[in-house]
Amino acid sequence: MTGRGGSALPAGMSSALVVGLGISGRAAAEKLLREGVRVTVNDISREGEVLDAAMALRGMGAACELGHHDLSLLEGVDLVVVSPGVPGSMKLLREARARGIAVWSEVELAWRFARGPVIAITGTNGKTTTTRMVEWICRCAGMEARAAGNIGHPFVRAAEEAGEGELLVVEVSSFQLAHTETFRPRVSVLLNVAEDHLDWHADMDEYVAAKSRIWANQRDDDLVVCNLDDPLCVKAARSARARVRYFSRSPEAGADVFLKEGRMLSRVEVAAGGEGEVEEIMRAADLPLPGGHNLENAMAAAAAAMGVGVEARKAGEALRSFEGLSHRLELVVEAGGVRFYDDSKATNPHAAMRALESFPGPLVLIMGGRNKGLDFGEMAEALRARARRGEVKAVYLIGEAAAEIASALEEGGFPAEMEMAHGLEEVFGRLGPVLGRGDTVLFTPACASFDQYANYKQRGKHFQELAKKYAAEVQNHG
């Protein structure tokens, strides 16, 4: 299959090593095999789903090397495709670069085979929701569009499935962007930048630099959509060569898409090249999803969709009917006047703080998991402030980071109840005496799930099961 301007792979590229056999790594290996490339797949694990994937790829003709990352794997290799989460500092990847071997992410590989325009979306939080919003808006406007990338459906697979000219709306992570060379989306979106993945990136400068690669190859006729309320986003966008269009919660900030008097508005130049005038996208209250951060996601999605020709009015109509995603401020159940929300996708303090802003209180919070090398100080201060106003009744802490979060909360004196528990079951066993009518139980971990669960989805599903069981017991005794 050819890609942009002819052959999608450089001439002479005949042998590839795929490092990491997650969903995107497997899809990349399958694509390379179909293109006639000799493929070796490699993963440090040799069990479970990794072993299953390796055996399936062996059946397609790949060589399999599991349980090590020996440098001998690079012999005779023209290309290394690295999966998200594999540290760029890994010795194998450093050696590959030193030998002049191309190191790509699955995003770079997929881009070379994509036959239609791409809208790429990155940021610390909100990527998946915004990606789905853009897809929904474009489909409602009558365009052929599909979402892909770091949302469970690999970009490389979607690029192969999509028709000529079909719009691909792609969620991309800093891991994936760090290993791109020619990737050039028609529209790139940077939602926000906060501390995250510092267990992977050396520091914040490296993290921001990786995010900024989303527009590294864009040209004057491309578009960048960026958060004007986020200083790190604004600073990063100065390096963009493409046109930059900003969104903001403030009408005074000078953004192109903004909120004013309860309405989401667009300056006409975003959609049609005019100046001065504004048009209404929608009433802010009509967005079905809770939280100011979701208004930001919606503004970004509308600006991106308008960047490929969707009318502001059509964008608003679509957003009014958009349904939220699982484990992202998802209302699970209501019983005895208490609402239970699953925000398991909040895997860093920044995401948890945004969740907190979505509810006036009284709140009972469940937090904790595995820290990703992040500081809980700012989140703790926000929690203390809410607790002093009586908006936080109790905080339950679980997982490896429980003591670390507790220490951060206690540093300035925490005026609400705080307890540590081994896990979610223990928390639900203690909730009864604490809860009252009008309360909200919010599970927003601020941490990764890997200390107790396979992923945030499994963690969220467990919370939902326990919440529904608790609600059933309340109703039975009601």
List the helices and strands and how they pair.
Elements: E1 2-3, E2 6-7, E3 15-19, H1 23-34, E4 38-43, H2 48-59, E5 63-66, E6 79-82, H3 91-98, E7 102-105, H4 106-111, E8 118-122, H5 127-140, E9 145-149, H6 155-161, E10 167-171, H7 174-177, E11 187-190, H8 204-212, E12 223-227, H9 231-237, E13 243-248, E14 257-260, E15 263-267, H10 268-272, E16 278-283, H11 292-306, H12 312-320, E17 330-335, E18 338-342, H13 349-357, E19 363-368, H14 377-388, E20 392-398, H15 402-410, E21 417-420, H16 424-430, E22 440-443, H17 456-476
Structural notes for this entry:
The chain is α/β, with parallel strands linked by helices. It folds into 3 domains: 14-100, Rossmann fold, CATH 3.40.50.720; 109-320, Mur-like, catalytic domain (UDP-N-acetylmuramoyl-L-alanine:D-glutamate ligase), CATH 3.40.1190; 330-471, Mur ligase, C-terminal domain (Protein-Tyrosine Phosphatase, Chain A, Alpha-Beta Complex), CATH 3.90.190.20. It has helices at 23-34, 48-59, 91-98, 106-111, 127-140, 155-161, 174-177, 204-212, 231-237, 268-272, 292-306, 312-320, 349-357, 377-388, 402-410, 424-430, 456-476; strands spanning 2-3, 6-7, 15-19, 38-43, 63-66, 79-82, 102-105, 118-122, 145-149, 167-171, 187-190, 223-227, 243-248, 257-260, 263-267, 278-283, 330-335, 338-342, 363-368, 392-398, 417-420, 440-443. It has a 9-stranded mixed sheet with strand order 9-10-8-11-12-13-14-15-16, with helices on both faces. A 6-stranded mixed sheet has the order 17-18-22-19-20-21, with helices on both faces. A 5-stranded parallel sheet has the order 5-4-3-6-7, with helices on both faces. A hairpin with a 2-residue loop joins strand 14 and strand 15 (263-267). Helix 5 (127-140) packs across helix 11 (292-306) and helix 11 (292-306) crosses helix 12. The longest helix has 21 residues, at 456-476. The chain is globular. The model is unreliable at 270-274 (pLDDT under 50).
